[in-house]
Structure prediction request, 427 residues.
Amino acid sequence: MPISHSYIKAHKEMKQCRFTLFVKELSIRIRREVREGSFQITTTIFFCLSVAFFVVILGMFINDHVRKFIVSEEFYLPQLTKFSQLSPWSPYSQFLCNTSLFSSPTLPPLNSSTSSRALRDLIAPKELWHSMNDKELMWRASMVPHFVDYPYDRIPKVAFMFLSRGRLPLASLWEKFFKGHAGLYSIYLHTSPEFNTEMPESSVFYKRRIPSKPVDWGKATMVDAERRLLANALLDFSNERFVLLSETCIPLFNFTTIYKYLINSNHSFVSSFDDPRHIGRGRYNKRMFPTVTLPDWRKGSQWFEVYRKLAIEIVSDVTYYPIFQEHCRPPCYMDEHYLATLVNKLRPDLNSNRSITWVDWSRGGSHPTKFVRKDVAEAFLNQARHGFNCSYNSGLSSICFLFARKFHPSTLEPLLRIAPSLLGFDP
Prediction:
């Protein structure tokens, strides 16, 4: 049956309609895809810009803090600007960064007078007076250079640390002791804060006082003063041995003998022993457990001598010191137990467990004998000098004590009289 013309026309119109609808749908789909793609692109661009902005801000933050905390002198030397005129240590931050933070360290050139002077001021600060508080001082003193070799010809020195109420009544004897040995010793004085009398400029004790605080016998302030002396002495990188003395102490030998004895020793000299009596173990406070146990507990003499590495550990101690400070109170005396116990905990293998300062406890009481003018004689001093046997560097020695106490000011005249012949001092 033949197809009519109207049918063919309708069929064509239907095809055109279908094609139009397809084009419209395709156009809508394309526009939808374009819109969605634009959103994704916009989102991606926004995310990238956000990350880039965060990186820039983070970089600025890190750069600011690196400059502030690594290069800045104020970080390494707290409150240095307050006393920079007294103690020009400004090159210290450069030295510390070079020694511990960078893989290719370089030392300040020593061929210029300015750099040499700056390094000398760092190695041994000329001025002992500063404005650091105890926390800042301990932190500063605990720093250890990472270089094995020193950037200068280091001659080890002995730091003589005097813990005194005020003046040194036996200073004239010590002047003779130190005479002719400059460069082999350093002197530090811790006195009562109200004591402000200065020694003559010609004296070895001139301007050797450190910033001090009040000290009460038998209390934690006594150990605070000892740690303060150690910390100040550690600021001199040439100090290798550190001995604590009082204003009533005298030397029992000449400087050369004492210097060699200390510098050549393989051990420190901290009296540390287990005392089972009530004045020993009886003072242990159970509240110290478990940081300090009864088997750890030791007693000893206040007057010690230590080598540099141990001195750094003492001023760096934040574990045991607070325990003693809180729980060792009279009748527990911190100066008799803290250091003896600490050394026993840290490095018992490098301690001789004896003091090198002789005292006489034969008369009993809470204080040793105080010697007066009539007691001073060659036979009396020789007993302290050679009347004992002890271990020294794994051998036997008749020299066990290098210093003695307690000597009244009235003993100065007879001591000065017999010192040249007996002790070998220069007349």
